Amino acid sequence: MKPDLSVEMFGLTFKNPVMGASGTVGYGIELAPYIDLGRIGAVVTKGISIEPRQGNAPPRLFETASGLLNSIGVQNIGAARFIAEVLPRLEKYDTRIIVNIYGESIQEYRQAAECFCGVEGVDALEVNLSCPNVDKGGLAFGTDPTLVQTVVREVKEASGKPIIAKLTPNVTDISPLARAARDGGADAVSLINTLMGMAVDIRSRGPFFGKVKAGLSGPAIKPVALRLVWEAARELDIPVIGVGGIMTGEDAVEFIMAGAGAVQVGTANFVDPAAMNAVVGGIETFMEENRIERLADIRGVIK
Amino acid sequence: MKPDLSVEMFGLTFKNPVMGASGTVGYGIELAPYIDLGRIGAVVTKGISIEPRQGNAPPRLFETASGLLNSIGVQNIGAARFIAEVLPRLEKYDTRIIVNIYGESIQEYRQAAECFCGVEGVDALEVNLSCPNVDKGGLAFGTDPTLVQTVVREVKEASGKPIIAKLTPNVTDISPLARAARDGGADAVSLINTLMGMAVDIRSRGPFFGKVKAGLSGPAIKPVALRLVWEAARELDIPVIGVGGIMTGEDAVEFIMAGAGAVQVGTANFVDPAAMNAVVGGIETFMEENRIERLADIRGVIK
Amino acid sequence: MKATIKENRELVPRYFTMTLSEMGDDFRGEPGQFVMIRGDWGSDPLLARPLSICRFLHEDGQIRIVYRVMGRGTRRLSEMKAGQTVDINGPLGNPFPRPDESRRVLLTAGAIGAPPLIALAGSMAVSPLLIIGGRTRNDVVFISDEIRELDIETIYVTEDGSYGQKGTAVTELARHVGGNDLVYACGPNRMLAEIARLSEEIGFEAHVSFEERMACGIGVCLGCAVRHANGTYVHVCKDGPVFNVTDIDWDRL
Amino acid sequence: MKATIKENRELVPRYFTMTLSEMGDDFRGEPGQFVMIRGDWGSDPLLARPLSICRFLHEDGQIRIVYRVMGRGTRRLSEMKAGQTVDINGPLGNPFPRPDESRRVLLTAGAIGAPPLIALAGSMAVSPLLIIGGRTRNDVVFISDEIRELDIETIYVTEDGSYGQKGTAVTELARHVGGNDLVYACGPNRMLAEIARLSEEIGFEAHVSFEERMACGIGVCLGCAVRHANGTYVHVCKDGPVFNVTDIDWDRL
Ligand SMILES: Cc1cc2nc3c(=O)[nH]c(=O)nc-3n(C[C@H](O)[C@H](O)[C@H](O)COP(=O)(O)OP(=O)(O)OC[C@H]3O[C@@H](n4cnc5c(N)ncnc54)[C@H](O)[C@@H]3O)c2cc1C
Ligand SMILES: Cc1cc2nc3c(=O)[nH]c(=O)nc-3n(C[C@H](O)[C@H](O)[C@H](O)COP(=O)(O)OP(=O)(O)OC[C@H]3O[C@@H](n4cnc5c(N)ncnc54)[C@H](O)[C@@H]3O)c2cc1C
Ligand SMILES: Cc1cc2nc3c(=O)[nH]c(=O)nc-3n(C[C@H](O)[C@H](O)[C@H](O)COP(=O)(O)O)c2cc1C
Ligand SMILES: Cc1cc2nc3c(=O)[nH]c(=O)nc-3n(C[C@H](O)[C@H](O)[C@H](O)COP(=O)(O)O)c2cc1C
Ligand code: FES
Ligand code: FES
After folding, report:
1. In the CATH hierarchy, which top-level class contains the domain A7-53+71-195+217-297?
2. What's B4's DSSP letter?
3. Pocket of ligand 3, candidates A193, A224, A272: which has the most ligand atoms within 8 Å of its Cβ, to mutate?
4. Helix, strand, coil percentages in chain C from 3-state DSSP, rounded to 5
5. How far apart are CA A46 and CA C221, in angstroms?
6. What is the pLDDT of residue D25?
7. Going by C-beta distance under 8 Å and a sequence separation of 6 or more, which residues neighbour residue B17?
8. What are the structural domains of chain C?
9. Is the CB of B190 under 6 A from ligand 4?
């Protein structure tokens, strides 16, 4: 018997727990030549803001040991163009569409969310809480429980969509932030976003990136991501979506055992555009070999 | 002309900025067959507590992508035996000796520090602030500025030695903690200790480590370490000692450019017991090739 | 896609040629396109590396790449042996616009910039003039076998005069190029910027293949941004790697 | 220390033999000792791997290791070719106590546990009896060449009966061993625990080579802890890998 990989979250059924992580699958359609989008649970779009954004000046990428630093800067075409030009093409695929939204003030988050109010085809919003709070000197929203709760409540109200709060890992204790997201009405949390890192160019004797700091992703961060997912899952009754360094089906199973309701695959898509196929297949194989009928049988087995 | 690698910190001269990181060189003497201890700036001992400690049950090690998770649990022979049995052998080498101390309450830190009061041959104490605070449910001391300041003040008073406050990276913002260490009287701070991570054993469907969480070190964490060193160095006027994923002389130069007064080499010692020789040599080569006469010429060039 | 290494051989120190077979029947591609390539070597280095297709050996369903060992990835590649497999994604990016062969075509290569230009020359009916410049002898002769095989008219230039003319590819180009010529170039960005200036000065049309660090090679990471003359960012992997020199904001590289 | 690979060859599927030369004149070592070995392959995998010395080819200043591909590290090793170099640290750990050859010596190997026992047999004047057990044929015959070369009296045992006796190394040991015999063993910890129980029952002296994950191999990381019968932790790399079975707390592995 084929194992059942389907996942129920906030009233929706996902074919399987594997999603493309924000910023690593473009708007989703770009991967269509490489994978059957209908075989993955969902795509999460690149972060979308109210207005188009150019992103940061190059260089934007630096490879580290088993990791990648990026300083893309949320380059995107803005909500209006996304809805008009991209969404119709993306909707043709039989997969869930989650829009990742970006803002630098509560107002901006709210407005970005409003853009998707009533927009069919968008199944949920994922709120990137790692954005710098320009009103508060640039510290991420995701580091302050009060702000997390407010932002989540506002975007939920404004959009009427299920909300996934994407938490930042760069915090002392994830628990109060996870609780704040839930209290704000989040239907799920996803974590982790990138770890804050930096690279030095010893030839030029300067920072490698114009903004000095950049976000670290990839296999290097998997142990940290697993720990945070485990901590958040123990704290919450809403689903936790695990992200960070997932390259294989076995990696995904680790996150599920640590408590993840679903997983996102990010940097792996760069290494191999067909990575998500392999992750879905790997989970299936693991379940078959170990006679696991449904994911609930292994989810959160690590207490 | 040979470049000058020497470093002055808290009134002491170090031959060069390269130290063996706590927990990765045993008590120091274990590396004597592999490297000329007289060629490195200092050794930092394994964390030492008042009483001997057995450490955690195995397994204690798990290799991750470009990293290592450890759950050693501060196994050590205790301050008294260290002073009586190990120190006399270690003192014979022409290098600085820094004792890393461990405690689970302010009282324990103070007592551990007292053990070294007046003990000649011990050049400084490094206070591991990642220890769980048993009075406060196990969150690390290093996450609370008030506690950091208190612990540093107490150990300084009790030992009369220069104090290096070893900060934990698992915090939202390192600045207040770095300032707290300075305000408590720290002569330097070192960072980073390991990132908190976790590993899952999907065969047994359980956590790999008995304590579930474990500390991540190695090249995987270097970008995060660099960022924290840079942030702390901008904040402080006391030296910052950079640790995390340093494998080569060029890695060390990156930390120095990010603001480090000295560096520690940890996991690299496991990969190659002669790693510290290579790091010293690599810094020297870089300075020669780039006509840098002294480290001050490149230290903190990244603003 | 898996491809099998048929040959991997050092040409001169640091320069290698690798022939890949079993590319699959649907592997087509045109001069100027590249592949993302990676061996099966754990996660350090993590990302695939972009390398231009130097030869399409269509008869045998093979391609050839020529590369210089720069760092971790190319070194690892250089250690691979015939019979091992690599992961290939490609052909990627936009090819060189097909040259109007009624005009004189000049190819200008800076050392390891030569491979895509060799592919271009190989696709032309009439041999173009190839100018290949480099610091020293090895930086230009590494590609001689391909040049001979395709019988391309070539001027070699080295900065130290150890082989061919003494000078740089750009000074040599300046000596030969006219306003009505068509120039294709690949090399360090600094060299390409000089060609852009020259093109403005003399008025010739120039298409250059641009290099930028890449993560994905397929337009999903937005990492390979370069500033377009119109002020927006374009992406080398998807909008390039070939650009008309007038497309790039050379002052803000 | 750098050593050069003289030979690296698959014996049977997944089992390899690697001969290393240029070990340096001061490379001595005794049966039961191991080396930490690592190729020059970036930081994934990061750590060196402990492998027992299987043969000391003193005349040529060479050693031989025999290994099974388990995961990332051993697979990477298996891909290396003659002529490439590896980093070696060793010999490390405590050797087997020299057997009192007036007693009957029985060596018990669980599959890839054989290599250090081969080294021990090779150092003895009189051939001991080697019992090698494994799941199936390949898990015992991989080491046959060494056994033949050293002319070691051997009983092969497989769980599926595909080669030699049907059964396990321990059941076979139980059939042969007497209270006054001297047993040396290496294999999975589960097997060693059974031998410890047998030793208590029958009264023979047994020394086992123990496996635990290692980071440093030299006693600085304290990672390879195993519980001593006296309740403290000992470290496999420094206090072992060879232990008297009475030293280990087998109930708390
Ligand atoms: C479209 C395209 C086509 C290319 N075609 C070829 C080709 O045919 N043959 C060939 O040898 N090379 C080619 N390159 C360059 C090649 O991709 C890089 O040399 C290679 O990725 C370096 O990887 P590495 O791991 O060896 O070096 P790294 O360890 O990644 O870096 C080593 C050094 O090279 C520099 N570097 C790394 N990547 C780049 C880059 N993309 N551009 C400029 N500098 C870089 C780094 O700053 C560093 O100093 C091409 C690049 C692009 C974008
Ligand atoms: C003193 C000593 C001597 C050894 N001698 C030999 C030898 O002569 N020949 C040989 O083939 N092997 C020997 N081993 C075992 C060998 O070190 C491991 O098989 C190897 O480290 C696995 O590395 P890997 O990267 O291939 O596997 P990994 O990717 O690290 O792991 C693959 C699988 O193997 C398991 N594993 C990893 N390390 C160990 C270990 N130390 N013990 C038990 N299971 C492990 C893991 O749990 C995992 O399931 C010895 C080990 C020790 C400690
Ligand atoms: C190039 C790049 C761009 C990213 N952009 C976004 C983004 O726009 N919004 C967001 O919430 N996360 C973004 N992320 C974070 C990823 O979605 C993911 O959380 C992170 O990379 C960890 O997963 P990974 O290790 O599998 O890549 C980005 C990551 C990368 C590498
Ligand atoms: C096995 C191991 C044991 C450690 N023990 C200690 C310790 O006792 N006290 C301490 O302050 N840090 C300890 N550390 C942390 C290191 O000193 C260092 O901060 C960390 O490993 C990051 O550096 P690296 O990446 O170079 O290893 C330990 C690290 C490892 C890997
Ligand atoms: S390399 Fe990813 S967008 Fe170009
Ligand atoms: S492996 Fe490090 S102490 Fe044994």
Report:
1. alpha beta
2. B
3. A193
4. 25, 35, 40
5. 9
6. 65
7. B5, B7, B41, B252, B256, B260, B261, B262, B263, B283, B295
8. 2-91 (2.40.30.10), 105-252 (3.40.50.80)
9. no
Quote the ipTM score. Answer: 0.95
Active site amino acids of A: 131
Amino acid letter, A226: L
Contact by Cβ (8 Å): A40, A15: yes
* CB-CB neighbours of B231 under 10 Å: 22
A60-113 tens-digit pLDDT? 999 999 999 999 998 999 999 999 999 999 999 999 999 999 999 999 999 999
pLDDT of residue B292: 96
Rounding to the nearest 10 degrees, give the CA dihedral for residues B221, B223, B227, B233: 80
- b/e sequence C62-97, b meaning 16+ C-beta within 10 Å: bbbbbbbbeebbbebbbbbeeeeebbbbbbbbbbbe
pLDDT of residue A260: 98
In chain C, DSSP finds a helix count (H) and a strand count (E) of 7, 16
Beta carbons of B279 and B253 less than 8 angstroms apart: no
**Chain B neighbors of D43, CB-CB under 8 A:** 66, 218-220, 247
Is pLDDT of C60 > 80?
Answer: no
Q: What is the mean pLDDT of chain B?
A: 95
**Which residue ranges make up each domain of chain B?**
7-53+71-195+217-297
Nearest CA, atom 3, ligand 3: A23
**Longest CA span, chain B:** 60
CA distance C202 to C220: 38
pLDDT digits (tens, 9 = 90+) for A235-288: 999 999 999 999 999 999 999 999 999 999 999 999 999 999 999 999 999 999
User: Ligand 5 centre from A24 Cα, in Å?
Assistant: 10
pLDDT value at C25 more than 70: no
Q: In the structure encoding, which two tokens stand for residue D209, read together?
A: 């080579």
The low-confidence residues of chain D, meaning pLDDT below 70, are 24-25
